[in-house]
Amino acid sequence: MEFWLDLNEEQQDLREWVHGFASSVIRPAAAEWDEREETPWPVLQEAAKIGLYGFEFLVNTWADTAGLSLPVANEELFWGDGGIGMAISGTSLAVAAIYGSGTPDQLVEWVPQCFGDAADPKVAAFCSTEPEAGSDVASMRTRAVYHEATDEWVLSGQKAYATNGGIANVHVVTASVDPSLGRVGRPRSSCRPARGAWPARGS
After folding, report:
1. How distant, in Å, are the alpha carbons of 14, 93, 94, 122, 176 from that of 128?
2. 140-148: long-range contacts (C-beta < 8 A, 24 or more apart)?
3. Read out DSSP for 65-88?
4. Where are the domains of the chain?
5. Which pTM value belongs to this model?
6. For 9-89, CATH number?
7. Span 83-114, pLDDT tens digits
8. 124-193 CATH
């Protein structure tokens, strides 16, 4: 099996496009939003307007069989600014969890709510790390219990360092349904609401 890191024309177009956004939009705004210590919603909105933030962009980069498009895009975003880069890419963590554990119906229902739209962008949170367990999901203490009478899943536990936690439109929480099953019984992802192709070079 061959492996190479040379970028094809499409990947080069992607790199130049994202670099242009990082240079003209992210870098000039970075100091202000770092000082404010707030989510850069106007920058997210600009990214959404040009198709750089949204499910379609994520699908296009994930579809690259070489596995290079998403790292190339992220490298340019984070060249612009680490904090803003994370604000733009953080939602993909929650979307990946929904994609990995959700049904087709759940994907259709929840993924659009993770991103919102260009007029009103949203973010999603991935809640896995715990104060006592860190990122070791086998030691996770958060539980998900199904109550048949109300037809609801009830979560109990504590999470820490949740990307986009508290400001997200959707929180994806990993939890154990049956601790006695060991690794087989964990983790499960639960989605909870809180209350196309990139342009060609030169376009």
Report:
1. 31, 10, 10, 20, 11
2. 140/174, 140/175, 140/176, 140/186, 140/187, 141/176, 142/173, 142/174, 142/175, 142/176, 143/175, 143/176, 143/177, 143/179, 144/175, 144/176, 144/177, 144/188, 144/190, 145/177, 146/177
3. TTS-HHHHHHHHHHHH-HHHHHHH
4. 9-89, 124-193
5. 0.82
6. 1.10.540.10
7. 999 999 999 999 999 999 899 999 999 999 99
8. 2.40.110.10
